[in-house]
């Protein structure tokens, strides 16, 4: 009789097998419909494929080991699970260090929600603010239409336009920094001051009213994205901690499943006749 631990390991890994197959299917769909896929979606193609295949293989080992009582498969599964636990522990602590090394400071206080690149950890700066990664991020921002429908009309005059609650990314990328002194004509059109933009800050001259330009190349945009990433990683550390507890529980159940398989194998062996 298959014990409860074997059943739980098998059931949980059937679920993960379905998730892995869904990831592989999504990757194949993006590849087949490559012409219709956005650049941001194409970035996910290979991570989904590799991650999906990995989950399918590991889940299959667990199902074979727990449901068909093949201990060799369970040992392989537990070895991979142990490595996964180590990686989750490392990544959780790494994310905490990266996101808390420096607390992002506001340029003009929380009301404007504008950040500087230098207010974040050097690792985040190197990973995000480089030509290759930033081009991909900028493409995703445009594909996601983050700068559309930013304001609500508060009256008859354009000057009475009121911005919705903007994210840090929208604050940095979709309008010129507050210190530039630009005059808002509508949600995405700003007029340069008569005295010209401040010469001591490049963001003020980089700003462009064209929808594919705006402030996507501004340091304020990069700072806003870094602030968003920092906030997401903080939530991710909580999620990782929950996953770590779940994976550790499954690992313990797998150890019990191996023990159950051994007991069943011993009980099924013919006993030597009494002399």
Automatic annotation (TrEMBL):
A Gene Ontology BP annotation from the UniProt entry: auxin-activated signaling pathway
Family: Belongs to the tetraspanin (TM4SF) family.
Segments passing through the bilayer: 12-32, 44-68, 74-98, 238-259
Protein name: Tetraspanin-11
Keywords: Membrane, Transmembrane, Transmembrane helix
Membrane topology: Multi-pass membrane protein
Subcellular location: Membrane
Gene Ontology CC, one term: membrane
């Amino acid at each position: 009789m298959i014990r409860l631990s074997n059943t739980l390991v098998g059931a949980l890994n059937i679920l993960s097998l379905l998730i892995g197959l869904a990831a592989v299917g999504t990757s194949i769909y993006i590849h087949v419909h490559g012409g219709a896929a956005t650049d941001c979606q194409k970035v996910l193609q290979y991570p989904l494929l590799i991650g999906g295949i990995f989950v399918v293989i590991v889940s299959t080992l667990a199902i074979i080991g727990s449901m068909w009582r093949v201990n060799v498969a369970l040992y392989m599964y537990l070895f991979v699970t142990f490595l996964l636990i180590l990686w989750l522990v490392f990544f959780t602590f790494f994310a905490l260090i990266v996101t808390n090394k420096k607390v992002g400071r506001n340029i003009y206080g929380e009301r404007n929600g504008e950040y500087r690149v230098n207010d974040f950890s050097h690792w985040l700066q190197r990973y995000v603010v480089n030509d290759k990664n930033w081009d991909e991020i900028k493409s995703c921002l445009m594909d996601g239409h983050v700068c559309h429908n930013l304001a609500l009309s508060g009256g008859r005059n354009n000057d009475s336009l009121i911005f919705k609650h903007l994210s840090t990314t929208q604050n940095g990328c979709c309008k010129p920094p507050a210190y530039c002194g630009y005059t808002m004509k509508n949600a995405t059109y700003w007029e340069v001051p008569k005295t010209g933009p401040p010469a001591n800050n490049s963001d003020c001259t980089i700003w462009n009213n064209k929808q594919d330009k705006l402030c996507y190349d501004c340091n304020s945009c990069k700072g806003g994205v870094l602030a968003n990433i920092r906030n997401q990683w903080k939530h991710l550390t909580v999620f990782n901690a929950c996953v770590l507890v779940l994976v550790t529980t499954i690992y313990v159940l797998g150890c019990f499943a191996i023990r159950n398989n051994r007991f069943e194998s011993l009980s099924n062996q013919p006993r030597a006749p009494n002399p």
